[in-house]
Amino acid sequence: MTNSTRRSSGHGPTRSFESGAERSGWEVFGERVARFRAEAGLAHNDLAMREVLSAEELREIESGATVPARCTADYLDRRFGAKGRLTNAWARATISTHLAGGACPYELDTSARTIREFSPGTIPVPLQTHDYGTALRRFAGNTARRGGLWNRSGGLRVVVNETAVRTLVGGAEVMREQLRRLVNAIRGSGLRFQVIPHGVADHPCPMGPFRLLSLGPAYTVAHVVAPYGDGQLISAPSEIQAFSDLFEDLCGAALSVADSLALLADAATGVEPTPSPKAIGSGSEANRVGGLSTLSTVAR
After folding, report:
1. CB proximity list for 92: less than 8 A, separation 6 or greater
2. Are 92 and 55 in contact (CB under 8 A)?
3. In degrees rounded to 5, what are phi and psi of residue 141?
4. 25: part of which helix (H) or strand (E)?
5. Helices (H) and strands (E) in the chain — how many of each?
6. Rounded distance, CA 29 to CA 65, Å?
7. What's the whole-number mean pLDDT along residues 51-71?
8. Largest Cα span, the chain
9. What domains appear along the chain, each with residue ranges and CATH number?
10. How far apart are CA 298 and CA 300, in angstroms?
11. What is the sign, positive or negative, of the torsion defined by CA atoms of 101, 105, 106, 110?
């Protein structure tokens, strides 16, 4: 299977491919685009839009030769008056292609409109600073970064246990920068970040981390994160609903966004530079720095 990101005639990003399995899914999507266009009485040139879509690119999409970006599918859905049906078709093709190809679940992040994530013990990958992520992977013996920084905070909802913000990873300087980055992201964007405090009476989720990626109005997948490897993608509607309900329960058990922000600010202030040995992940054996547990303490 070969996938490549390219630009066509200076327009938005699209992916071309050669795999027959992928073509069948995107050919079906292309047929739907052509049908919606015909029903709307629009020609290819009617839909051409500078820096968004060219008439030639639209023809390639309809033939199944080119995979459109989500923004292109959204644009066509609006122009056709499809009321989300075309965006859902795009999401269905994206998810089925991804599952068939066995690609890394994190590669779906850029296609997702929203991401909901529960990360019990660490700051989630999309929000990690470079130094925090490097220290965490060094401790786990895994040097490969999974995923990338999420640059659309308005579409990201995160719930963590208080352990995640009270565990020192990489030393005082690294942890303080990580917490400050979170504080700034919450204050400056639509990031919804909530913390479940220590000692909560009934924790809704004793299990490990999971993520919910919504690609279309009616298409969501769950990513069950594993400590090693890519984890598992789940697409069964009944299981997605169960994960969605669980995430809402987690939000209900957590502090409000405002109170979580205050906790983060307090934790960042409490991480003071110190000449004593730093945390595991930066090459030390200390168990506490500036009132925070180190990664070695939690790992036990």
Report:
1. 29, 216, 219
2. no
3. 75, 25
4. helix 20-40
5. 11, 12
6. 11
7. 93
8. 72
9. 3-101 (1.10.260.40), 107-299 (3.30.870)
10. 5
11. positive
- What would the two tokens of residue 89 be? 């078709």
**Both structure tokens of 201:** 């009476």
- Return the bridge partners of 288, or none: 293
Q: Residue 119 contacts by C-beta under 8 Å, 6 or more apart in sequence?
A: 158, 159, 160, 164, 209, 225
DSSP state of 157: E
Identify which has the larger pLDDT, 278 or 46.
46
pLDDT digits (tens, 9 = 90+) for 184-234: 989 887 789 999 999 888 888 877 899 999 999 888 999 999 877 788 899
Residue type, 184: N
Segment 135-179, tens digit of pLDDT: 988 866 554 445 555 555 568 999 999 999 999 999 999 999 999
At position 82, the amino acid (one-letter code) is A
Q: Provide the sign of the torsion angle of the four alpha carbons 141, 142, 148, 150, taken in this order.
A: negative
Residues in the chain: 300
Token pair of 273, please?
A: 């530079």
- Structural element, H or E, at residue 214: strand 210-216
Residue 80 contacts residue 36 (beta carbons within 8 Å): yes
CA distance 246 to 252: 10
CB atoms within 10 A of CB 185: 18
**Entry pTM:** 0.78
